[in-house]
Amino acid sequence: MKNQFFHLPDLELESGGTLAGARVAYQTWGQLNENRDNVVWVCHALTANADVLDWWPGLVGPGCYFDPAEWFIVCANVLGSCYGSTGPLDADPATGQPRYQHFPRLTIRDLVAAHEALRQELELTDINTLIGGSLGGQQALEWAVQRPALFDHLVVVATNARHSAWGIAFNEAQRLAIEADPTYAAGRPGGGDDGLRAARAMALLSYRSYSAYAETQTDPDHELPLEHRASAYQRYQGNKLVARFDAYSYVALSRAMDSHHLGRHRGSVPAALARIGARTLVLGITSDVLFPVSEQRELASHIKGAMYAELDSRYGHDGFLLETAAITHFLELFYAPTFAH
């Protein structure tokens, strides 16, 4: 499946600036039914893309819970990414040159504004399910607060109502690593790649858990290795991200994550969550140190009628991508009372 593109007029940003010449890359699967009410909209996480069948296998795709044979599935790439939507590597219409580290500051609300513009372009007036995890969950919550009558169901996994000081600190540590790479400030293709390797190694410590590393990366007994398994794993993951992502986009999107605060200019977080009209499923992950279950419990306690459950996973935050069988189980419980799937 190839990206489709929607071009927006200049987008007014929450920070007060403007993103000129914006486009949104998106993909769709399946067909709208006669009533146009079988829509599932997926919001992706930090370094993912619009191809949800690729990065959420087991949950979305043929034979999965969200099967294109039954659902019309939409996933749009966020602004600031390097996967088709307007990002730091794209030329500024005013100069004809890429913006690189001078790309405008985006917030979660800006990402949602682009999704909302695309939704209107696609003439989708009833979305059965809005779903997302991590950064995708932040987008889904913000959108559900803004448009309480649009979504029938909301499913959020490993996310929060406001990005925590702990999460912001993790992101800033990663940005410091990227900015310490002198090629980042040079503003060129591949700028900051060495810093991005280090940033990814840092991030992985917040995505996984102590037990996951102990089970998979512990060195054999009675050996003195030239390189520890855990060391090699961190380097492998850093190289893997550099091969598919961009440091300038990583900085832009981690800053957008930091901006997430449903209560900003809405009185409070509880007041914002009380606006949500969708029937909601909130899932936490017991071993998640980046988005601890206390944050998901907060969501469920302030969203009227929300169903709350926890995934007992050893994978930490990455469990939202890996524990698709458990997520499917809770989706079946969630939909059973009101929706004959």
Automatic annotation (TrEMBL):
Enzyme Commission no: 2.3.1.31
Catalytic activity: L-homoserine + acetyl-CoA = O-acetyl-L-homoserine + CoA
Presence of keyword Acyltransferase: yes
Subcellular location: Cytoplasm
Major subcellular location class: cytoplasm
Cellular component terms (Gene Ontology): cytoplasm
Pfam families: Abhydrolase_1
Active-site residues from the entry: S134, D288, H317
GO molecular function, one term: homoserine O-acetyltransferase activity
SUPFAM superfamilies associated with the record: alpha/beta-Hydrolases
Chain ranges of the AB hydrolase-1 domain: 39-322
Annotated family: Belongs to the AB hydrolase superfamily. MetX family.
Quaternary assembly: Homodimer.
Biological role: Transfers an acetyl group from acetyl-CoA to L-homoserine, forming acetyl-L-homoserine.
Name the UniProt record assigns to this protein: Homoserine O-acetyltransferase
Source organism of the structure: Hymenobacter lapidarius
